[in-house]
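Q: My labmate handed me this sequence with no annotations at all. I'd like to see what the chain might look like in three dimensions before we decide whether it's worth expressing. Could you predict it?
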Amino acid sequence: MSQDLLSSLEYIEKEKGISKEVLLEALRHALISACRKSFPEKADTFEIQIDPRTFRISVLNEGKEINDPHFGRIAAQTAKQVIIQKIREAERDSIFTEFSHKQGVIVSGNVHRVEKKSIILDFGKTEGILPAREQSPLDNFKQGHIVRAYVMEVKKTSKGPEVILSRTHPDLVTKFFEMEVPEIHDGVVIIKAVAREAGSRTKIAVTSKDDKIDCVGSCVGVRGQRVKSIVRELGGEKIDIIRYADDMEVYIKNAMAPAELKEIRIDRERQRAEILVADDQLSLAIGKKGQNVRLASKLIGWELDVRSTSQMIPLSSLDGVGEKTEESLKNAGIHSIKDLLKMNAEGLAKVPGIGTKTAEKVIASAQKAIGKKNPLSENPPNTEENGEKKHEGENGEEASAENEGSEHAGS
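A: Here is what I predict for the chain of 411 residues:
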């Protein structure tokens, strides 16, 4: 047995990186435990000696060596179990160490199987779990597909290391930009912040250490090839590349693009900003289902309150609107300039307490307040879909186009 054991230990030491000393100590404790279980009445009298040169195993009871064949079988069986167990532990520790260093980076794996609550990726040595909650709505992976995902966490379990992956994490976009844009990898262009709603849109703020390097242009690439590559990897998720600015007013303006802002009122203590836009820019500023302002708020880290001109200007500030007139307007369901401009002078004159001359004066004042000459002849304000307006490029693809420090890309 000692020769076979010697060969096994030398192989394990060379191939698995487990020292013979560690194995021998584990084997000695395992043999003592096995002897005590087999002979409980002599549990405290057993001693195991292993020659470090020849690896010969001696079983002693009360100081005398026992040459019982039964003990020989116990020793051989236990040695085999200990070696197998140590090999498994060493392989698990090796895999855990390897993937622990990959936490926070992107890894590639083949889809091994698709389950209801997760997708299992095969990395060769181990498997990764992509839970349903970490999958983008645009993902549609099937068995055999190659998937690139962000390593969120690596946990030790009784079954081995568990690698938790994500396709929704904002840092996934950051890492893709680091891989695609050499200027980011080299540290010349810096990503300051990322706000993401996976499967829909991402806003990413960048700046440059070198004034000669255009941070936005570097991320977009020639004809938008760099950002388009990332958009394809994300299944068509739209990406807005924002030019970061130390001046908070400029930064907010860039983050809210493509909407045009009329006024920004900043409250630094509360990290809050009130944004005033023209009525026809309100839906564009807010975005579809509030997405544009929500992502801008996440990107900056401030609360953003967007209002239109008509919402911000009180009725009492208009010419011809005194306390009684304001009360009459509110009783008629007119609470804002926006409500007021839905009517003409003839209709407004029908409100109790307001005559024709007052009606004409009030409407003229309201038009002047929000910069409209003839609202009745203009098209209605843009609908929410304007917040998703695309720039069409060649072959009908959505192309990147700079707009107030922002780049909009998609496919």
